[in-house]
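User: I'm preparing a small set of examples for a lab meeting where we compare how different chains pack in three dimensions. I only have the primary sequence for this one, and I'd like the structure in token form so I can line it up with the others. Please keep the answer compact; I'll paste it straight into my notes.
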Amino acid sequence: MNVILPWKPDESCPCGNNMLLKDCCLGSDGVPRIKLPSLVPTGPLTGHSNENCYLKSTLNCSTKTNKEHYISRSLLQQLGEPLRWAGLPWEKPGVEIRYGPNSLSSHILCDRHNSALSPLDQLASNAFKAIRASSDELNVRSLARRKKWFLISGEALELWALKTICGLFYASVAARNRQSLNKAYSIDVSRFEKAVCQGYVDTPCGLYVTPNTGQRNPLVYAPLSVEQDKRVIGIRIGLAALEFDVILDPTGVNFDYLNRNFFYRPWLINMSSQQRMHTMVLSWPNSPLGSRIVNVRLMPTKAKSQQAKRSSIAIP
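Assistant: Understood. Below is the structure token output for the 316-residue chain.
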């Protein structure tokens, strides 16, 4: 599909880096692609394995660990209110608890790996901000007709989701039937290590997107696991009008079902409501612009009813 983007080389780059597009994200093919920085710790290998770091097998840890947010602090701050959690292993059945950003952390990464992976948090936060802004605006009746465009990193969103499920697993937060998954399940963290080094996971694993026809919550998540093999294989995230399944491990995955119902690593997400439409460009390093497009049709609501739905919910 031939897609005409609104950004010119001599204009500010839509990634928000305060540089001209031609000096920032513009690729040699004329398509803007947000470039991921290296996610591998800088300098020579330390040869150290920190027992509190889930990437300890790399033998490239520091000796110090601080509490790391298993859901990015920048995203929690963007939501603007405490998260409501249900189904936590240490709470009674049916109990819902509110947690602020400072509470959602654990000793799961050493300082060295935490610092190296931190760019994913900001890039994912930028992506979620664009998705929520589009959904919120289009859900409110308006006479405005101007289309908005956003550039976000698909590969950063994909890797951030895998970082999140690793963090939730090793922090004993990811649960099934109120039982911590890390008590009886395994996760192939070596696949995440490889993804960090190459910038994305091997096909057919990765990011799958579909319109969310249910209630539009700011953030809902659930670990994806395979009961028969006792493995955590990915994460499902619901955000605004979209649902993401991000697959780390192909064990037991029905990819035929995913390909029928989801869009694999889409380049464009069009959100529309009546006569308005906003478009998010998800950049990927090795696929042509417009090769996969997700179209989301929103029904506008009154501003007051939309505001009532802004409570934050995360469900393990």
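A couple of notes for your slides: The helical segments are 73-79, 111-138, 154-170, 181-184, 189-198, 255-261, 303-307. The longest strand covers residues 231-239.

User: Perfect, thanks.
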